[in-house]
From TrEMBL:
Reactions listed under catalytic activity: succinyl-CoA + L-lysyl-[protein] = N(6)-succinyl-L-lysyl-[protein] + CoA + H(+); (R)-carnitine + hexadecanoyl-CoA = O-hexadecanoyl-(R)-carnitine + CoA
Residue ranges of every copy of the Carnitine O-palmitoyltransferase N-terminal domain listed in the record: 1-47
Subunit structure: Homohexamer and homotrimer. Identified in a complex that contains at least CPT1A, ACSL1 and VDAC1. Also identified in complexes with ACSL1 and VDAC2 and VDAC3. Interacts with ZDHHC4.
PROSITE patterns noted in UniProt: ACYLTRANSF_C_2 (PS00440)
UniProt GO BP: carnitine metabolic process; fatty acid beta-oxidation; long-chain fatty acid transport
Listed name of the protein: Carnitine O-palmitoyltransferase 1, liver isoform
SUPFAM superfamilies registered for this protein in UniProt: CoA-dependent acyltransferases
UniProt topology in membrane: Multi-pass membrane protein
Active site: 439 (proton acceptor)
């Protein structure tokens, strides 16, 4: 193929006269430019590594210290208190005749100044570390949380869910664990905390994500929606050209360490470690555990369209392709009429089915030849791109449109997403986009940061022509995208079909109900003198009780990125205070002031628990790590076994927004995404994600399973609507029809 030859720098032919070499100047030029680009990146990383190593010092501050020392010497002042003279005596005698006493004195002053500079850096760093370790600013009163306290907090969290007999049994198990097993297990955790950067995150990634053998689709991966209230273009290839160009610009900033950290409440920087594996990352299936493969560089994306796989280069030599060039490349794929090869169309269903089956198939059928080369092109890509022939978008006049859009992002047709890639960029025929994201490498706020940058760059920096195309003129001399070649035998096709059936049954069982709540947003919620998150979480408790007639263990994810390599902690939102409020609401006999008081107590409790989780004083990750240690030691703990087996029948998450202020939301109120969602964690439970979008609206994504007779996503969504309105009515907040 013509495009394949362009990647070859030279060719040779054996003739009777000898070996005839034919060099390609164009290919050599691209190799040279790629090398220059690679070395530029290395030098930038070396420079950043040096500056990071001496932070908060700098070469300028070192020069200031040296000049101060030298200047004081010329003023006959010895600020070193004799240390410069001592260093000068200790210097070995030089053999150069040019070496003078003045040279030795200057060298001694430089050594002394460097020592002072490094000592200052050390003390500054320790002071900064102490300041960042202090989390009391989040509390009026806060102290260290003991093991006894954490166990008591756990018992308090399950009290509303257990009757007296069950609670007494759990109390006895907890007491036995506290007195006999916990001290021994805790010693190992303390030792790990001394040795490891983070005592939770590596085990969390391995045991919660990578060792899972069930399908990633629905069970682990989550989706993110596009802007839903405005549309920049209807041209599918053009939208991709701008967004992918913006994403690679973001990756360049990431490589150069130019992205500012997100600040917790605008005060403390949060750890950015999770961003390192955003690009060039794939989850490789294994029989017992998966592995995350991360590459330092990738110069292409893998693309799926109409059952065919393609490889699209992002660079020409060292130059990033312009949006108009990328648009041309994707349009070439859309215009390509070639049919899929045997077994190619549903190949990605392997990533949607069981992990064991995929690992076995990968080893048996993709370990050599063209299958291995084609699979490597996908797994070594910067990310995966899916070009869909269907159109989805939110239509405010059609409530079901948002849910159908979410379903398409969550699982598609079960074989048009590569669920192992760090993320799949999904492009619909009408130019609407979305993401399907693998969960093990990072949590939702990380991909949200990239998505905000890409959407903001697309809307406010790159732009489109009047006809909806990318700006500029395309370079028609670019080689077309490379079609990946496969040789998939019948046995492998049978495995693909089996994985597809598993994935299809899972996808068909998911009920997703997405809706926009327009009656009010965070602006009016704040008039209740409570946090918007606490308001929504208490509304969820009220809605769930109305839906199921009982309370359940509730999970809300909280970030722990104020700690190095921190990920998440659990906020147990079903508290004694929230259940007291819900029961009072259900009784219908309480006066408004009493209900307001109960609500405020529940909200205050929730906010305090959220702060505890953010500052490392949560209980679930600690109990999880104690459980891992017990398994390593072969220690049986009925208490830990019961804690880890409890089902989260209501799993919730708030989606962050405006992590990057690329525009003024007051000036552009319709530049809003609808957030994203995930599948239900329990077969008889609900998954709820929500985004408090601006001052006047909230987006909800509610999931459940059709196979459960106890759950119904739309019914629960309607209960959520009503619960929000009923709580607002307690405070007489003005409302509009939703």
């Amino acid at each position: 193929m013509a495009e394949a030859h362009q990647a070859v720098a030279f060719q040779f032919t054996v003739t009777p006269e000898g070996v005839d070499f034919r060099l390609s100047r164009e290919a050599l030029k691209h190799i040279y430019l790629a090398g220059i680009n690679s070395w530029k990146k290395r030098l930038i990383r070396i420079k950043n590594g040096f500056l990071r190593g001496v932070y908060p010092g700098s070469p300028t501050s070192w020069l200031v210290v040296v000049m101060t020392t030298v200047g004081s010497s010329y003023c006959n002042m010895d600020i070193s208190l004799g240390l410069v003279g001592y260093i000068q005596k200790c210097l070995p005698q030089g053999y150069s005749p040019q070496e003078s006493p003045q040279t030795r004195e200057l060298l001694s002053m430089a050594i002394f100044s460097t020592g002072v500079w490094m000592t200052g850096i050390f003390f500054f760093r320790q002071t900064l570390k102490l300041l960042l370790s202090y989390h009391g600013w989040m509390f009026e009163m806060h102290g260290q949380t003991s093991h006894f306290t954490k166990i008591w907090v756990y018992l308090e969290s399950v009290r509303p869910l257990l009757d007296d007999e069950e609670y007494y049994r759990m109390e006895m198990l907890a007491k036995e664990f506290q007195e006999k097993t916990a001290p021994r297990l805790q010693k190992y955790l303390v030792f790990k905390s001394w040795w490891a950067t983070n005592y939770v995150s590596d085990w969390w990634e391995e045991y919660i994500y990578l060792r899972g053998r069930s399908p990633l689709m629905v069970n682990s991966n989550y989706y993110v929606m596009d802007l839903v209230l405005i549309k920049n273009t209807d041209v599918q290839a053009a939208r991709l050209g701008n967004i992918i160009h913006a994403m690679i610009m973001y990756r360049r900033k990431l490589d150069r360490e130019e992205i500012k950290p997100v600040m917790a409440l605008g005060i403390v920087p949060m750890c950015s470690y999770q961003m390192e594996r955003m690009f060039n990352t794939t989850r490789i299936p294994g029989k017992e555990t998966d592995v995350l493969q991360h590459l330092s560089e990738s110069r292409h994306v893998a693309v799926y369209h109409n059952g065919r796989f393609f490889k699209v280069w992002l660079y020409e030599g060292s130059r990033l392709l312009k949006p108009r060039d990328l648009e041309m490349q994707f349009q070439r794929i859309l215009d390509d009429p070639s049919p899929p090869q045997p077994g190619e169309e549903k190949l990605a269903a392997l990533t949607a089915g069981g992990r064991m089956e995929w690992a076995q198939a990968r080893q048996a059928f993709f370990s050599s030849g063209k299958n291995k080369a084609a699979l490597e092109a996908i797994e070594r890509a910067a990310f995966f791109v899916a070009l869909d022939e269907e159109s989805y978008q939110y239509d405010p006049e059609d409530e079901a449109s948002l849910s159908l859009y979410g379903k398409a992002l969550l699982h598609g047709n079960c074989y048009n997403r590569w669920f192992d890639k760090s993320f799949t960029l999904i492009s619909f025929k009408n130019g609407q986009l979305g993401l399907n994201t693998e969960h093990s490498w990072a949590d939702a706020p990380i991909i949200g940061h990239l998505w905000e940058f890409a959407l903001g760059t697309d809307s406010f920096h790159l732009g489109y022509t009047e006809t909806g195309h990318c700006l500029g003129k395309p370079n028609s001399a670019l080689a077309p995208p490379l079609r990946l070649q496969w040789d998939i035998p019948k046995q492998c096709q049978a495995v693909i079909e089996s994985s597809y059936k598993v994935a299809k049954a899972l996808a068909d069982d998911v009920e997703l109900y997405c809706f926009q709540f327009l009656s009010f947003g965070k602006g009016l919620i704040k008039k209740c003198r409570t946090s918007p998150d606490a308001f929504v979480q208490i509304a969820l408790q009220l809605a769930h009780f109305r839906d199921r007639g009982k309370f359940c263990l509730t999970y809300e994810a909280s970030m722990t990125r104020m700690f190095r390599e921190g990920r998440t902690e659990t906020v147990r939102s079903c508290t004694s205070e929230s259940t007291a409020f819900v029961q009072a609401m259900m009784e219908g006999s309480h006066m408004k002031p009493d209900l307001q008081d109960l609500f405020r107590k529940a909200a205050e409790k929730h906010q305090n628990m959220y702060r505890l989780a953010m500052t490392g004083a949560g209980i679930d990750r600690h109990l999880f790590c104690l459980y891992v240690v017990s398994k390593y030691l072969g220690v049986s703990s009925p208490f830990l076994a019961e804690v880890l087996a409890e089902p989260w029948r209501l799993s919730t998450s708030q989606i962050p927004q405006s992590q990057i202020r690329m525009f003024d939301p007051d000036q552009y109120p319709h530049h809003l995404g609808a957030g994203g969602g995930f599948g239900p964690v329990a077969d008889d439970g609900y998954g709820v994600s929500y985004m408090i979008a601006g001052e006047n609206m909230i987006f909800f994504h509610v999931s459940s399973k059709f196979s459960s007779s106890e759950t119904n996503a739309q019914r629960f969504g309607n209960h959520i609507r009503q619960a929000l309105l009923d709580i607002a009515n307690l405070f007489q907040l003005p409302k509009a029809d939703s």
